[in-house]
Amino acid sequence: MKKILFTIITVFIGYPIFAQEVWSLRQCIDYAIEHNIDIRKTANAVEESQIDVNTSKWARLPNLNGSADQNWGWGRTKSPDSNSYTNRNNANTGFSLGTSIPLFTGFEISNQYALSKLNFKAAVEDLNKAKQDIAINVASAYLQALLNLELHKVAVSQSALSKEQFARIEKLLSVGKASPAELAEAKARVAQDEMNVVQSDNNYKLTLLDLSQLLELPSPEKLKLVSPEEELTLSPLTPPDDIYTEALAQRPEIKAAELRVSGADKSIKIAQSSFYPQLSLNAGIGSSYYTVNGKAPYSFGKQLNDNLNQSVGFSLNIPIFNRFATRNKVRAAKIQKLNKELQLDNTKKVLYKEIQQAWYKAVAAESKYNSSEIAVKANEESFHLMSEKFANGKATSVEYNEAKLNLTKALSDKIQSKYDYLFRSKILDFYKGKAIE
């Protein structure tokens, strides 16, 4: 009996794993955030928003444009000093610089700058949300892999017990204390348990593959995970309403939705700017050089100096009637604000629903874990007694196998409830603003 219990402890706890690179949950999350393609695309969107902010920031500066033109003409033209017509070839070269400074645009520039900053902040929150989503996905895959690893250890330990049972019955058969049918049944049990070992190992490898793909790793071959403590320390769960209150203040999807509502206010003001006059200051300088029949009356430099001209002026554009286009733009912007407000309300409702579900699932997982602990202790005692009875010939192999199956199921249920509780409790901490570790 001591040998059996030693086998369970040795195989279940100390199952050998080949030398691999050890990854903690935090390392997996950090690596995924750094290498995940969707995260990198969202980060690019943040940079694009930052460029828009820079563009809006400098919109008040004057622009400066230079131009140069070259024209040729030929054919009969009227002579400037007589009424006669002659054949003439002429060429004209012109240079100019012009600038325009927006003085008043109906507050469009200032509101556009404010909108671009709000959009940038919302994009940053979108990036934070994407990072949190990948953290949840990685945590789920990580804990699922650990769950399948421990289930595999249980399968290995049960297979070892079946092999010992088969060897014991084989010895009893040789001295006439067991029947060939019992030996065949024990052999079938060994085969079934070995198949369970193979299946559980495949399940573990598949979940490890899922995790490695989330991390953008080329292969899961060198991936080994850090297992949590064997026994859980259960702590009181924070009520869902309290978690929701904390989440409203720090969840990135809430912040992003609120920023977009504020941005909708700026969009309305931008649309309303078309109701106002537009005033700008314009200035320019230019000169030209010309030839007639290939000859110039003055040198290039003198012509440029003599033909130099400057201009400065104001341009006022007063909107009077534009087919109700501005009015309709304002109405459309107000509808967009209503949609943003509805989106914010929906985001809050979805968040509260997620927190409620996570809380009730955590409560259920905690209850299941407590029950599974009791079940494991009861089945360990039952299996211990049944093993002694079978060794003394007071129980059949069927009764022994049934006790072993009950213990296996109890161990599996405890492992599943353990990782379910770990995941649910991490989700609740996550909604409270704590990093997943």
Give the topology, please.
Layout: H1 2-13, E1 21-23, H2 25-35, H3 37-57, E2 63-78, E3 85-104, H4 108-174, H5 180-214, E4 223-225, H6 240-250, H7 252-272, E5 278-292, H8 300-306, E6 309-317, H9 325-391, H10 397-431
Parallel strand pairs: 1-4
Antiparallel strand pairs: 2-3, 3-5, 5-6
Helix pairs in contact: 1-4, 2-4, 3-4, 4-5, 4-7, 4-10, 6-9, 7-9, 9-10
Structure description:
The protein is α+β, with helices and mostly antiparallel strands and 437 residues long. 66% of the residues lie in helices and 15% in strands. It has ten helices and six strands. A four-stranded antiparallel sheet has the order 2-3-5-6. Strand 2 (63-78) and strand 3 (85-104) form a beta hairpin. Helix 4 (108-174) packs antiparallel against helix 5 (180-214), helix 6 crosses helix 9 (325-391) and helix 9 packs antiparallel against helix 10 (397-431). The longest helix is centred in the N-terminal third of the chain and has 67 residues, at 108-174. The chain starts with a helix and ends in a 6-residue tail after the last helix. 25% of the residues are buried.
Shape: elongated
Q: Which regions are unreliable across 5 or more consecutive residues at pLDDT < 50? A: 1-19
Helix content: 55-70%
**Biggest sheet, open or closed, and with what strands and sense?**
4 strands, antiparallel
Radius of gyration: 40 Å
Biggest sheet strand order reads 2-3-5-6
Q: Whole-Å distance between the termini?
A: 40 Å
Give the SSE order as H and E letters. HEHHEEHHEHHEHEHH
Oligomer: single chain
Number of strands: 6
Structural class: alpha+beta
- Mean pLDDT across residues: 86
Beta-strand percentage range = 15-25%
Number of helices: 10
